[in-house]
Write a structure and sequence with these properties.
By secondary structure, the chain is of the alpha/beta class. The chain has a single domain, classed as TIM Barrel (Alpha-Beta Barrel), CATH 3.20.20.80. 34% of the residues lie in helices and 15% in strands. It has 11 helices and 11 strands. An 8-stranded parallel beta barrel has the order 1-2-3-4-7-8-9-10, surrounded by 5 helices. A two-stranded antiparallel ribbon has the order 5-6. The longest helix is centred in the N-terminal third of the chain and has 25 residues.
């Protein structure tokens, strides 16, 4: 038995135990790598052999595989690819099926519960599979090419349904549902934000029809808030801070950066503005520049900014995509050297075996989004 020297010793011991517990708790919630280490990841093309080729090109095993999905598109095949590649999964969730396409739901509709089936299904499946997943929710939200952005390219406002207010509310709703707990408590948390209950249900009968019990599962997920470091358009209402839902709703912060747009000053601003959160570089590539200097500068930034705990390479989808690493032999060599650093973990804990009935590769014809309730117009 530990003994303190009177009341002061007991208090000191209690404070020490709390201090020792805090870092572990934060790490468990954000699923960060071990101290003084980071994860390297790569984007998912939908084909396992593409991951294997990238792994061979850089002579290192990425610990994280990031899949891009539209709201309502269930990542079951992606989960199989995560298992087949021995990676931890990340899903980047938007609301459009293609670049600059209309969104399947607006932020206001999501905030008001018209897309609840999606987070409910994700939480249930991730919980059942004991899967740890990073969710890069609504990335680059201050970029006009995303339907959930509040502004068009010319600076004109897209209307209330896509306002930054409803963006923040949509984010908070998603976070609350993924966090799970007693259904009544979940609905109380939503009500405190002036948001309708789960599934917009006024009676328990609907929950029974939907197979929703009295306790919502808590998924092992970490939410990543990753804006553009500067708004596009760069007006006063379209800055990262306008989309910030609040620290209690966010596990990681980060930005995207490319050699074509090497805004390290902007990345520094985001890093310094949102302290206390692990930092992720959600997308990067040498895009259009075979520059080893950019690669070394990027990893130098990570080395000298201790909260940078993950960098994810974006390789596009088609074999000819300009982001593919083999287009940039000098940058590829630089990347190999950087990944050789012993601070980069090649594997995250908790790998799963693939299910034999599902090969994991995406079909040649993309499946349409599913699971979202048909909302009213707007």
């Amino acid at each position: 038995m530990l003994r303190g020297s009177g009341r002061g010793g007991t208090a000191a011991l209690a404070m020490l135990l709390v201090a020792l517990a805090l870092p572990a708790l934060a790490s468990a919630e954000a699923y960060t790598p071990p101290p003084k280490h980071s994860y390297f990841g790569v984007s998912d093309t939908g084909v396992v052999n593409s991951f294997k080729k990238f792994r061979g090109d850089v002579k290192s095993h990425p610990a994280v595989l990031q899949t891009f999905h539209t709201w309502g598109f269930h990542p079951w095949r992606a989960m199989n690819r995560w298992a087949r590649t021995n990676t931890r999964g990340m899903i980047s969730v938007g609301t459009s099926e293609c670049y600059a396409c209309p969104g399947v739901l607006s932020p206001k509709q999501i905030a008001n519960g018209y897309g609840d089936e999606y987070p409910l299904t994700l939480a249930r499946r991730f919980h059942a599979e004991d899967e740890t997943v990073y969710i890069r929710l609504f990335p680059e939200m201050n970029g006009h090419w995303n339907d959930y952005s509040a502004y068009n390219q010319d600076g004109s406002f897209r209307g209330e349904a896509r306002s930054t207010h409803w963006f923040r509310q949509a984010w908070r709703r998603f976070s609350i549902i993924m966090d799970g707990g007693r259904r009544g408590k979940v609905n109380e948390r939503l009500a405190r934000l002036d948001l309708p209950p789960v599934l917009r249900a006024e009676r328990a009968r609907r929950y029974r029809r939907q197979g929703i019990g009295g306790h919502l599962p808590k998924a092992q997920v970490a939410l990543m808030w990753v804006p553009q470091s500067t708004g596009s358009p760069n007006n006063s209402g379209n800055q990262p801070s306008d989309y910030w839902p609040g620290g209690k709703w966010v596990d990681w912060v980060g930005v995207d950066i490319y050699a074509r747009y090497p805004n390290f000053a902007g990345m520094e601003r985001i890093y310094r503005s949102y302290k206390g959160k692990p930092f992720v570089i959600g997308e990067w590539s040498p895009w259009d520049y075979d520059s080893p200097g950019f690669v070394h500068q990027l990893f130098g930034f990570a080395k000298h900014h201790g909260r940078v705990r993950m960098t994810v390479y974006y390789q596009g989808f088609a074999a000819s995509d300009p982001h593919r690493i083999w287009h940039y032999p000098r940058a590829q060599t630089a990347l190999r050297r950087e990944l050789n650093h012993n601070g980069i973990k090649q594997y995250a804990p908790g790998s799963k075996r693939p299910k034999p009935e599902d090969p994991g590769d995406e079909p040649a014809t993309p499946q349409p989004p599913s699971g979202a309730t048909t909302p009213p117009a707007g």
